[in-house]
Amino acid sequence: MSTPHNSGEKGEIAKKVLMPGDPLRAKFIAETYLEDVREFNTVRNMLGYTGTYKGREVSVMGSGMGIPSIGIYSYELFHFYDVEEIIRVGSAGGLAMDLNLKDVVIGMGACTDSSYQRQFNLPGTFAPIADYDLLERAVKKAKDMKVSVKVGNLVSSDVFYNADETVNKRWQKMGVLAVEMEAAALYMNAAWAKKKALCIASISDHLFKEDALTSQERETGFTQMMEIALDI
Question: Which residues of this protein are catalytic (predicted)?
Fold first, then answer.
């Protein structure tokens, strides 16, 4: 069955999905790494592809920017397409001072300033965390590839241009590694659906340094992150 946001039919999407925010990064991953690729979605230009990687079926699909967008796409994949695991492969802004451009971070947890969790009507504050099995395998794969990887807390923010210029410093003080905009909703949706989720991110800029990658470098330059996600 298709949805208002996804023209794929049931069976056209693999049990494992990689989700970059940028649909053009999804296209790059499909064209660079997958064999026997077939396109299953172009609705709203949120490109989706299914193919094989080392003989295993895998799909890749953009999530768009922000919690509302990945909230929709990951919900549909988990509930309507029988997807079992989603690995976000995205960009993040560095907060920890020992992070540099293109370093890989893995979100063990995802703080957030979003109100997304209110829909679950919980009697407290939910702590969105990654699936441990995916996390453990990702760390092992990174070590096998001799990739320097940091594991810890991310913060998924609803705000890119924040009027409060002190927020990033306060997250940094709490040991948060990097800021991005999607992981918390993905982790919440996975918990609700009893599925698996993980966020692997590459540092595209640093909030306390003047380093930043171009849009083209962000689209095609995060190959280590992509290969870790594909191999687990």
Answer: 205 (proton donor)
CB 114 within 8 Å of CB 65: no
List CB contacts of 107: < 8 A, sequence separation 6 or more.
130, 152, 153, 154, 183, 187, 198, 199, 200, 201
Pairing of strands 48-53, 104-112: unpaired
Q: Has 44 been labeled as part of a binding site? A: yes
88 known member of a binding site? yes
Tokens of 218: 């962000």
Exposed e or buried b per residue across 33-65, where buried means at least 16 C-beta atoms within 10 angstroms of its C-beta: bbeeeeebbeeeebbbbbbebeeeebbbbbbbe
Is the whole model's pTM more than 0.90, yes or no? yes
**205 an active-site residue?**
yes
DSSP line for 10-57: TTSS-SEEEE-SSHHHHHHHHHHH-EEEEEEE-GGG--EEEEEETTEE
Torsion sign over Cα 199, 205, 207, 209: positive
Instruction: Dump pLDDT digits (tens) for 150-181.
Output: 999 999 999 999 999 999 999 999 999 999 99
- Contact status, residue 228 vs residue 139, Cβ threshold 8 Å: no
- % the chain with pLDDT above 90: 93
What are φ and ψ of residue 59, in 5° steps? -115, 160
Return the structure tokens found at 103.
Answer: 């370093």
Residue of 113, 158, 205, 211 marked active site: 205
Question: Which tokens hold the place of 72?
Answer: 């929709």
